[in-house]
Amino acid sequence: MSTPTAGEPTSDLVELRVPADPAYLTVVRTASAGLAARLDLTLDEIEDLRIAVDEACTLLLDPATTGRDLVATFRLGDGSLEVEVRGPARELPERSSFAWAVLEALVGEVFTGTSSTGAWIVLRHNRVVGPTSGSSVAV
């Protein structure tokens, strides 16, 4: 990665490839939480993102498909994190399903699509700036 010049946004790209098997979702969840922590997100934001990534991964698994991978690409920018997950599922549930309600409630933006090789989901989260309700701690 090159060093950005003044005024240029910084970004990092991390790609994680695991077998498309529920047993490996823990690895993707843990990576999500660790990368979110690098952005100084609140504990609630980190947990929300971790749950959203887990839900997205689950939607992209296809029990009928073996030998395929689940690929999570993390793009970290100044106060933002975009997670693109690609998996072998050929179809995604209806946007009115509970799974979509969970995704949309936990992250700022959700984009989806399908291709000949499977489906993809992009989750975008921007860090909350300023104080948030319930985030202060009394000492």
Secondary structure layout:
Blueprint: E1 12-19, H1 25-38, H2 43-60, E2 69-77, E3 80-87, H3 98-106, E4 109-115, E5 118-126
Antiparallel strand pairs: 1-2, 2-3, 3-5, 4-5
Helix pairs in contact: 1-2, 2-3
Question: What helical percentage do the residues reach?
Answer: 25-40%
| Tally of contiguous helical segments | 3
H/E element order: EHHEEHEE
Strand order of the largest sheet: 1-2-3-5-4
Largest sheet: 5 strands, antiparallel
Number of domains: 1
Could you tell me the CATH topology label.
Heat Shock Protein 90
CATH class category label: Alpha Beta
Query: What's the CATH H-level superfamily name?
Result: Histidine kinase-like ATPase, C-terminal domain
Instruction: Provide the low-confidence segments as ranges.
Output: 1-6, 132-139
Task: Describe the protein's architecture and organization.
The model is unreliable at 1-6 and 132-139 (pLDDT under 50). The protein is globular, with a radius of gyration of 16 Å. Strands 1-2-3-5-4 form a 5-stranded antiparallel sheet, covered by helices on one side. It is built from 3 helices and 5 strands; from the N terminus they run E-H-H-E-E-H-E-E. The protein has a single domain (12-126), classed as Histidine kinase-like ATPase, C-terminal domain (Heat Shock Protein 90), CATH 3.30.565. Helix 1 packs antiparallel against helix 2 and helix 2 packs antiparallel against helix 3. The N and C termini lie far apart (41 Å). The protein is an alpha+beta fold and 139 residues long.
